[in-house]
């Protein structure tokens, strides 16, 4: 039985189309190719942690993170925010069948709310969480476990975790979730998601209900 599905947002339920990288380049226009590659390699992780790793200075990291959040917000305001096809229908279908839904993200609470508001999804999930609120971001299991605790679940094995990056997969595995599915609508390739240990690699979120029904 699946009692809860924890969904990543950008690249999993929300189309990314390069928005994270574009916001990063707006925030750090002088970024080196190595820094851009690091952003690609750490998709799904907490953004402030990524900036700390790159800049090695807390003040500079905080400044860059603020600029990134502002840049991403501007892109969303410009209309560059849309759901992954079928995501809304899958989520509402799960909830109609008694499965709880949580959204996790590597963004701040402000940016997460901005995205959900832009999509009209502010009431779509039973629980939402961010790295700052849960304790640590991916690849740590904290956000998944925060949803388990926040929703009062008895067993983490009744949880499915869905994301588009190896960090999402590692987070789900470390939490003890029974299903850890990687989707190919975002940053991760089939090989990368499988190598990270995904229990399932799906073309998109649309394929998730069939996996859960087969358990």
From TrEMBL:
GO cellular component: cytosol
Coiled-coil ranges from the UniProt annotation: none
Keywords: Hydrolase
Pfam (any one): Hydrolase
BP-aspect Gene Ontology terms: DNA repair
SUPFAM superfamilies for the chain: HAD-like
Record Gene3D superfamilies: HAD superfamily/HAD-like (3.40.50.1000)
An MF annotation (GO) of this entry: phosphoglycolate phosphatase activity
Protein name: Putative hydrolase
Entry-linked InterPro entries: HAD-like_hydrolase_sf (IPR050155), HAD-like_sf (IPR036412), HAD-SF_hydro_IA (IPR006439), HAD_sf (IPR023214), PhnX-like (IPR022468)
């Amino acid at each position: 039985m699946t009692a809860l599905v924890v969904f990543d947002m950008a690249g999993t339920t929300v189309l990314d189309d390069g928005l994270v990288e574009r916001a990063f380049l707006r925030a750090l226009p002088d970024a080196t190719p190595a820094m851009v590659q690091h952003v690609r390699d750490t998709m799904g992780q907490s953004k402030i942690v990524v900036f700390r790793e790159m800049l090695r200075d807390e003040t500079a990291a905080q400044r860059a993170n603020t600029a990134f959040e502002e840049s991403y917000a501007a892109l969303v305001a410009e209309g560059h925010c849309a759901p992954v096809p079928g995501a809304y229908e899958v989520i509402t279908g799960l909830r109609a069948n008694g499965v709880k839904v949580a959204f996790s993200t590597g963004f701040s609470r402000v940016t997460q709310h901005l995205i959900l508001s832009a999509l009209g999804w502010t009431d779509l999930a039973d629980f939402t969480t961010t790295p700052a609120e849960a304790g640590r971001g991916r690849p740590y299991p904290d956000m998944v476990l925060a949803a388990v605790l926040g929703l009062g679940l008895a067993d983490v094995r009744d949880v499915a975790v869905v994301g588009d990056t190896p960090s999402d997969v590692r987070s789900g595995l470390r939490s003890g979730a029974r299903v850890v599915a990687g989707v190919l609508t975002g940053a991760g390739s089939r090989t990368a998601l499988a190598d990270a240990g995904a229990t399932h690699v799906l073309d998109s979120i649309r394929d998730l209900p069939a996996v859960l029904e087969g358990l």
